Amino acid sequence: MQNDDSKSNPTTFSDAELPSELDPKKFAFLIVDNDPAHARAMTESLEKVGYRCQVATSGPEGKRMLEQNTYDVVITDLVMNDVDGMQILSTSRQLLPEAYVIMVTGHATVTKAVEAMQLGAFNFLEKPITPNRLRAIALKAIEAVQLRQTNLDLRRRLDEKFGFEGIIFASPQMQYLIDRLKRIAPTDATVLITGESGTGKEMIARAIHQNSPRKAKRLVALNVRAVSETLVESELFGHVRGAFTDAVSDREGAFQYADGGTLFLDEVGDMPMSTQIKLLRVLEEQQITRVGDNKSHKVNVRLLSATNRPLEKLIEEELFRNDLFYRLKVVTVHLPPLRERRDDIVPLMDHFRKQFIKRHNRGPCNFTPTVTRKFLAYAWPGNIRQLRNFVETMVVLDTDGKLDLDDLPPELYDESAIAMAQNPSQASRSSMDSSLSVKNPGGGESDSTGVAGPLAVGPATSSAQSNTWPSSPSALNHPSTTYGTSQPPQLSDLPPGELIGKTMDQIERWAIEETLKMTAGNREEAAKLLEIGARTLYRKLDKYKHESDESPG
Predict the structure, then answer these.
(1) Could you give the domains of the chain?
(2) Which of 21, 73, 371, 446 has the fewest CB atoms inside 10 Å of its own CB, making it the most exposed?
(3) 90, 115 Cβ separation under 8 angstroms
(4) H-run or E-run covering 314
(5) Confidence class of residue 161 from pLDDT cuts 50, 70 and 90?
């Protein structure tokens, strides 16, 4: 091995040119050469840069070291006795598929070296080898190692974020769903995802794609509702220049852009009928025609679609094609609303809390038990999206490290306290109504018709509805209360004329005192049953105590 001057060859790399982000000590080299002097010269040249090197001075020794250790780069002479470079390449490819193999060859065996590269070798060095040439090829190899590791790390993070591991849940409903998705994802089946807005349909689509054989290709998401009806076809299939007024150049549509990967159509129920016909043809023939073009293009796309509208009803109303419906729902995945899987609320709260603490650079903060109960009792009409926004609001507003009632967004404020401040007389009536209402297990209120709304009190209240009081799980476990036999205070239970002539404040006080009796003095349970905040209840009780202290006798 001979020395040379790097200045005479501008394409070579000197020691100082090793990129600063690459730490040479991280990379392990194996040098296999049956010429000990040549092997030692290559080793010294690489060790000078900082690479960790081991030497094998025969083919059998090199093979044995491959079986016992792990290397990033293997440099092997092609022509050796007993075990040659081709056998070292084969062993390395079998035992260390992530390692890169560099072949060393004389001029007479260049053809053989090219053959080795076709079988998986990374590069080859022709003798005589200069130190700079050796280091340049070694640098290319470790850059390839680093790039592969970066891609693996990125793929791992994508799996964590969009794979099944990134789905936060604790409920049996979601466990069943994940088990189902794990069977669906590896296939090429078309999937229809249904569920209310905000339940995470796009997240499920990304998880399916990330766990499919197509995950190395694109996932293209298109919200049909967000696109003008006149442009849906162009967004899906593309267009050629001059196809319409603003078509100043050719443009690929979502199908071509997602070729080889996955296309996710959100809100597919809002697709115009004319586009539905063309989509059906694309799914059947696997080829698209751009708007304004006569030429067809083959596409290979897995289609996932989602809707929060019942497509069966749209079919009855002749707003959705029956044949397209069955083409889309080869497999159906239904996401239950958050109110039907309340076991997921606390894990989601904690997940989003950590996420937004990091994003907004906030200090440590935690939810109080009172807020947690508020979240568990809330109906979540906006599902996970709404919960996520609520948690972000609280993290941003927090100043004391406690995510408490003072950090709640407006939707979870004590509505009766706000109303009292705005209109005391009307608020008292509203508070009385809320204290005599019944919440159903789904989180909303029910009337005698089963429709969400305040429950009528008095003779019109059915016994079945009365027995649903209260919806709070902790209240049901209270030792001093037997629900179904011990009823909450009802207006109809009072002697005739008991409330006639009473002020609204007196009626409200009666409701509070009777509810406290029912809960054996448990103020938090009483506040929940009355649907007012605990702070509001404490304030009212202090007021009653003050009035009692001031009353004569």
Answers:
(1) 6-154 (3.40.50.2300), 163-243+250-336 (3.40.50.300), 339-412 (1.10.8.60), 423-550 (no CATH)
(2) 21
(3) no
(4) helix 311-316
(5) low
Q: What is the 3-class SS of 47-88, one letter each residue?
A: HHHCCEEEEECCHHHHHHHHHHCCCCEEEEECCCCCCCHHHH
Contacts for 12 with CB less than 8 Å, ≥ 6 apart? 6, 130, 132, 133, 135, 136
Q: Are 316 and 325 in contact (CB under 8 A)?
A: no
User: Tokens 């001979």 — which residue?
Assistant: 2
**Side-chain half-sphere CA neighbours of 399 within 13 A:** 2
- For 423, phi then psi, to 5°, come to -150, 90
Q: Which two structure tokens, joined as six digits, stand for 462?
A: 């059915």
Measure Cα distances from 23 to 29, 51, 53, 89, 310 in Å. 14, 9, 14, 26, 57
The helix/strand/coil state of 393 is helix
The token pair that represents 175 in the structure block: 């466990």
d(Cα 112, Cα 105) in Å, to the nearest integer?
8
- Separation of alpha carbons 162 and 398, rounded Å: 29
Per-residue pLDDT tens digits for 56-93: 999 999 999 998 888 999 999 988 888 888 899 999 88
**Residues 472 and 485 sit within 8 Å (Cβ to Cβ):** no
Which two three-digit tokens encode residue 445? 């209120």
